[in-house]
Write a structure and sequence with these properties.
Blueprint lengths: L3 E6 L3 H17 L4 E6 L3 H4 L16 H9 L4 E5 L11 E5 L8 E5 L14 E4 L2 H10 L4 E4 L4 H9 L5 E5 H6 L8 E2 L14 E6 L3 H7 L5 H17 L7 E8 L2 E9 L6 E9 L3 H10 L3
Parallel strand pairs: 1-2, 1-3, 6-7, 6-8
Antiparallel strand pairs: 3-10, 4-10, 5-8, 5-9, 11-12, 12-13
Helix pairs in contact: 8-9
């Protein structure tokens, strides 16, 4: 029996935290295993001066890792689920989704307690996501948006050295790195709906690797999987990626799945938001059904 697994991951502090987190979850259930973490550089890591919406490749943070997975040099890949394309390469599948962290975005401003509506007129806000840009401008058309790339630590450092009024990041990344002291406020999801899969981790494996698949069953969180399956189906049906302002958030309460979806123009002038509530049994169909209301 194989007693060693190799996890593939990007090398940023957040990616390594995520890989170590998954390693810890696995070892808590399978202490007999030896687990190695392999650092892999991706196109998205190497090209840091270009806005994400300028990339044609949907797998800019995953492709190189997936290639190693297909070659068998790693056994599983740990991704931020929002980076993982909805159509995986042939031969790969989603093996597990651990319990989700907070899904909201946060505002990092100059004072604690500052919210989006507290910012001065014509405030400058930094973000690297067209999804955030569209929704922020819809709420506050006067805002000036500054494009920003880089990992969480780099973005916060750039903000602190700038004359910008705010920076928007995912709560999960900021909290996972222990940087909560910089959070001024959590942005309500009725103002900015999060990216599909935000706050969740996606563990990718080879389709025929039943050994690893069986191990990962112990760390899969079914409620999270239901929610993100609906979100990803919504995104896939609309054909969106990092170039298109699309957002979704699934919430499971008992046997019901509530799914909120958003699509917008980049300038935020046109924003459509819809919700549906369905039984949890068919999350993929729920995502597709909500997407059909946007056509």
């Amino acid at each position: 029996m194989k007693l060693k697994l190799i996890i593939g991951t990007r090398s940023s502090k957040l990616a390594l935290w995520q890989a170590e987190h998954v390693k810890g979850l696995i070892l808590a259930c399978h202490p007999e295993l030896e687990i190695e973490i392999k650092h892999i550089s991706t196109k998205g890591d190497e090209i840091i001066d270009v806005s994400l919406d300028k990339f044609d490749d949907k797998g800019i943070f995953t492709k190189e890792i997936e290639n190693e997975l297909l070659r068998g040099t790693i056994d599983l890949a740990v991704h931020s689920l929002k980076d993982l394309q909805t159509e995986l390469p042939y031969g790969l599948k989603l093996g597990a989704v651990p319990k989700r962290h907070r899904s909201e975005d946060v505002l990092i401003a100059r004072k604690a307690g500052i919210g989006i509506n507290d910012l001065k007129k014509n405030a400058i806000i930094a973000t690297g996501a067209v999804r955030r840009t569209a929704q922020l401008l819809h709420c506050r058309p006067d805002l000036k948006i500054e494009d920003i790339r880089g990992n969480v630590n780099t973005r916060i450092d750039k903000f602190l050295k700038s004359d910008w009024d705010g920076l928007v990041l995912a709560a999960a990344g900021v909290e996972r790195l222990g940087l909560e002291q910089y959070i001024s406020s959590f942005i309500p999801t009725d103002i900015v709906l999060p990216a599909v899969g935000q706050g969740a981790l996606g563990i990718e494996i080879r389709e025929n690797d039943y050994y690893t698949e069986e191990i990962l069953k112990s760390i899969n969180h079914e409620v999270t999987l239901i929610a993100v399956t609906a979100e990803r189906a919504f995104l896939k049906a609309l054909g969106g990626g990092c170039k298109t302002p699309i957002a979704a958030l699934g919430t499971v309460i008992g046997n019901e799945l509530n799914l909120a979806g958003m699509a917008a123009s980049v300038d935020g002038k046109d924003v459509i938001r819809k919700n549906l509530t369905e039984n949890i049994n068919s999350p993929e169909k729920s995502g597709e059904k909500l997407a059909s209301e946007f056509e």
